[in-house]
Amino acid sequence: MDPSASSSSSKKKPVAIITIGMAGAGKSTFVQRINSYLHSQDPPAPPYILNLDPAVTHVPFEANIDIRDTVNYPEVMKQYNLGPNGGILTALNLFTTKFDQVLGLVEKRAEEVDYVILDTPGQIEIFTWSASGAIITDAVASSLPTVVAYIIDTPRTTAPATFMSNMLYACSILYKTKLPFILVFNKTDVQPHEFALEWMHDFELFQAALASHSGTHDSEGEPTYMNSLMNSMSLVLDEFYKHLKAVGVSSMTGDGIKEFFDAVEASREEYEKEYLPELERARAQREKTLQAAKEDSMNRLMKDLEIDRAKNPHGALADRWDPENEGEDEDDGNINIVDRSKSLVIVMTPTPAGQVSSVKGCVPSLIIVC
Ligand SMILES: Nc1nc2c(ncn2[C@@H]2O[C@H](COP(=O)(O)OP(=O)(O)OP(=O)(O)O)[C@@H](O)[C@H]2O)c(=O)[nH]1
Ligand SMILES: [Mg+2]
């Protein structure tokens, strides 16, 4: 299906594509490739791109929102005495505190774009197992139809054991995000992905591949523990594969990108039919719990105040709101998210080191004013 077809008068919401994958699987190159594919449509349908990798020095695409404009990753490492992964995680956490602004910018452009694409940090677990990764994913998925594109380095998954580890990881992400999921076998210019599809469709073929690998039988010819475990796992994964779409692409040559967009459009329907009702149910439940917690804490606060006033009537008289002081303490954290494509004037203001804790936990940053 032509991705630009959705830019008709009855405008559908754009689909958010979250690219996730092991380090070096080709996420950023894939984002660049789908970006150029969308630009080459007639009429061109440029997507809205978010780079969430604070540590990358060069991205092969032009991001509309780039985490590096908001958070200075080397400074985060320095100020908080962190290593590279702690630095990425903290940078992502800080960025997440401003994600409402990001959503605001995305929503403003929702009428004009068909796809919103997110490139995630190289260390997969930083995004998939962190609170900020979950908050970002949930926030995006609550406002737009969302799919996860799980990028796989095909040449590196030809060994059955590696293939299985990768699939188990994909399974854990599906379980965590509960979003429509597309397996993207990347780098098919180097290694065609048909072997993977065969293993996914017929677990006996996978078990045969497993048996042909050395180390699967012990000295007495019995299957090793690992071999038996993987055989059993392949049966479990068989069920998992039934809910997935898999495409082979080459981000280098552009092969398979159209098939990827066909899978995205099919996932949009899946999202609307299956995921959205579930999401709305979960949201209503969350709001109910939150409301109950708010009421409970408000009741306790009122009781405490009554006791306090009874004990100290003079103090209660002095404890009054002064309208003249209103607004003095307002401080929005001094960080603004920037839509690069809309920026007119760029003012770079490095926050002096040492003031980090004084601005509500914000880090020294580049602030770009539109
Ligand atoms: N041959 C080939 N190489 C690819 C393809 N896609 C990506 N690469 C190469 O794989 C390497 C890693 O690509 P990136 O796009 O940086 O991968 P990434 O997943 O974004 O990496 P991190 O963000 O650092 O984890 C680069 O050298 C790319 O040129 C592909 O389809 N074919
Ligand atoms: Mg990358």
UniProtKB/TrEMBL annotation:
EC number: 3.6.5.-
Gene Ontology CC terms, in alphabetical order: cytoplasm; nucleus
Keywords: Cytoplasm, GTP-binding, Hydrolase, Nucleotide-binding, Phosphoprotein
Annotated SUPFAM superfamilies: P-loop containing nucleoside triphosphate hydrolases
Biased segments, Acidic residues type: 324-333
Top EC class, one word: hydrolase
Stretches of the chain forming a coiled coil according to its record: none
Region (Disordered) location: 313-334
Subunit structure, as described in the record: Binds to RNA polymerase II.
Name of protein: GPN-loop GTPase
Organismal lineage: Eukaryota, Fungi, Dikarya, Basidiomycota, Agaricomycotina
